[in-house]
Amino acid sequence: MAGIWDQARVRKYIDDGIEESLNLDYKAAGALAKTDGKRKEVTKDVSAMANSDGGIIIYGMTEQNHLPDVIDPVNRKDFSKEWLEHVIGNIRPRIDGLLIHPVPIGGSNSDVVYIVEIPQSQTAHQATDKRYYKRHNFESVAMEHFEILDVLNRQQHPRIELDFETLPAIDEHGVTYKLELNVKIRNIGNVLARFIEAHVAIPNAILLNGAQRNRRTPNRSGISEGHTVFRRHNRERFAIGNSGPPSYTSFYGTPIYVPLFPGLEMLVESIDLIAGAVYKDEKREYTIKWSTFADSAAPNSGEVVVYDSLRLG
Fold first, then answer.
1. Are strands 139-142 and 133-136 parallel, antiparallel or unpaired?
2. What is the C-alpha separation between 44 and 90, in angstroms, rounded?
3. Mean pLDDT along residues 31-44
């Protein structure tokens, strides 16, 4: 959800026909009113988004069959950003990290669209009607008791995601001959992670065959739909000392698990890709798939799209 919010960005939702989803909700200007019912509805919708996967609510956009229809500006003189913040602030507990972006429409000083960015929370939030809600099938619906417990348990388990960084490997002639895909595990939760396993599935079409990094052979655990799967853990060997050239350090002993503290990350793999494979053009796109497993936490997964700029196959 990073980036600057302006009228062009809001308009693009209409032009691209972006449908409402678990993470996106459109609300007409009439959704904001100074009545108890409307204020309760705001806290219901915002808390439901935080209790689910996070996302954005756009106040000032009508929808038809869950597709954006027209911009329906809110009069900021009647409903200021501060008023909306106050209404949302009645959710208990308060939602940390929530942002409200007023987007001026048509050069007017009063017409705006409010973009409410809502993070996924680490606890359960209660609307002003004393109920807990979640997002389901484009709506905010009441949560079952076990679902509330599941949300409350988020803060009792680590949350592990993968970060990817590509670096060019350049030879003595200044030519990029491969790309190094650095895979990092990151603990975005509030709890120490002791045992982590990460699976990264790389499309074979962009994988540099036979390449190794740092004298380590990739642990290929299997092939899945044209992908090679790399399986890695948060384990390290201790450096004992130099047993060869000055630049060569020996690592001995059984690998041990290195705990990953909240907010920290560690490099678990460098995978060699074909040079130029991640620069977007008009050719094919490929998807890197990943999954993480940690302690007693639920599995997490995601995808990263990369692009082929070479003539492959």
1. antiparallel
2. 11
3. 97
Backbone angles phi, psi at 108, to 5 degrees: -80, 150
Residues in Cβ contact with 152 at an 8 Å cutoff, skipping those fewer than 6 apart? 123, 124
Bridge partners, 296 (sequence order):
none
Instruction: Let me know the angle formed at the C-alpha of 125 by 52 and 99, rounded to the nearest 5 degrees.
Output: 75
Q: 244: Cβ–Cβ under 8 A, 6 or more apart, which residues? A: 250
Report which of 242, 238, 269 is spatially closest to residue 251, judged by C-alpha positions.
Answer: 238
**What's the rounded Cα separation, in Å, for the pair 19 and 240?**
56
43 touches 123 (CB < 8 A): no
Q: Rounded to the nearest 5 degrees, what angle is found at the Cα of 258, between the Cα atoms of 255 and 259?
A: 155
* Torsion, Cα of 119, 123, 129, 134 (10° steps): 60
Q: What is the distance between the alpha carbons of residues 75 and 290, in angstroms, rounded to a whole number?
A: 44
Q: Would you report the helix, strand and coil content of the chain in percent, each value rounded to 5?
A: 15, 45, 40
- Of 160 and 45, the structure prediction assigns the larger pLDDT to 45
In sequence order, the 6+-apart residues with CB closer than 8 A to the CB of 52 are 22, 120, 134, 135
Whole-number pLDDT of residue 283: 55
pLDDT reading at 87 higher than 90: yes
